[in-house]
Amino acid sequence: MVYINIGTLVTTYGPCDLRAITDTYSKGNALSVRLEGTDDGYWCPYATLSVNLPEHAHMLEEDEFFVKLWSENSELVELLDITDVFTDTGKSVLHGFEDVPVWKLNVSTD
Q: Whole-model pTM?
């Protein structure tokens, strides 16, 4: 696992320091990205940014992952898109009724 500092984001719930935790999904070996947040010095789970689509994992390049941008992640994804930690690659796949974008992690996980 790799921890990557994202910085402070201001959401509708207030400011929160966020960090990304990267790992690899066991099925498909795609990059997994979870977020932890703190506003009091204690890190706790905040959101799961990636979604595992093993049937499409072959289209991902190094440090790329599928982004869950629906439901509870919709506002968060907009805020993260303006950081320099992630880049929208412009690629996407259709999964059910959702167009799932591919983002690149701009920080080495080695």
A: 0.89
